[in-house]
Amino acid sequence: MSSAPLIAVKLTAAEILLLDGKTRPEVQTLVDQARRQIEIEGAGADPRIAALVSEALREATEKRKLVYRGVSITFCRVCDRDEGYHPYHRSGRKGGVYRRRGEPDRSNPVSFGAIELRDSGVRISGYVSLGCCDRCWVKAAPLLREALRGVCADLPQELTGQPRRWRLVDEMKCSKCEWTGPETDMRPSLTFMGDGYFPSGCPACDARNELFTSPIKRSGGTVLIDLPAARRALLADVLKKTEDREPHRWSVGEFVGRAKIQLGEVPEVVRKISRTFDLNPESGAALRAEVSHELAAAPAA
Ligand SMILES: [Zn+2]
Ligand SMILES: [Zn+2]
Hints:
The chain is of the alpha+beta class. 37% of the residues lie in helices and 20% in strands.
């Protein structure tokens, strides 16, 4: 079936639904999208808003990630909003043609705020790939929030109303040992400027990516990281470090780097440990109590 020539066609959601269960898997995701669109519409939503929400839901399910990015556009494809052109401020010749003050300047369309939801490497200014204008967003946001409930994907708090639960990162593969895992599990190094950390070393062997050699490469895959679980694992490792049962290979500073790279923030207790532990390992007992306390309080997955 995959070798059969394909025909491009545009169908309504109701028409696509007729293909349910009869088509290739990649088309079935469109059937599911169409079904959601009809459901959302049935609940009283504007059909074009329902189409946007169901498309965003498919993107979140397939790509496992959505973003929330403010952009400015001059035309909204969801509501056809178009604010026209700015008028000429004064009369005179422009581009060889006489323009009267107040006449619309067709080279200068009025732009307005919009939201981009698709995480794409390419950013075209004045254009949204998956999204809508700020007025449509007011209607779409609560429906999308509802639709995204329970979806395992990297979703910003602006979309779900909840702190980010998952994070999508590149999967890396070490060529010196067998390690494969998320980029955020790599051993961190201080940046050249010393103002931050970046993932540089294999967590399982001594391999390290340097200026001219990179033994740890992208595998081409991605990994969805459970952030609360990553936080618990980090605290457990820090606890081990302060207990010094088995001296951990990593310095406390490297744990700070790992927290920044993996969680995007450094838990207060890790920060405290980084300030005092290397200087005064005896401070370990009090800090250990604090880490244990935070671990106990951390919500289970
Ligand atoms: Zn709009
Ligand atoms: Zn390795």
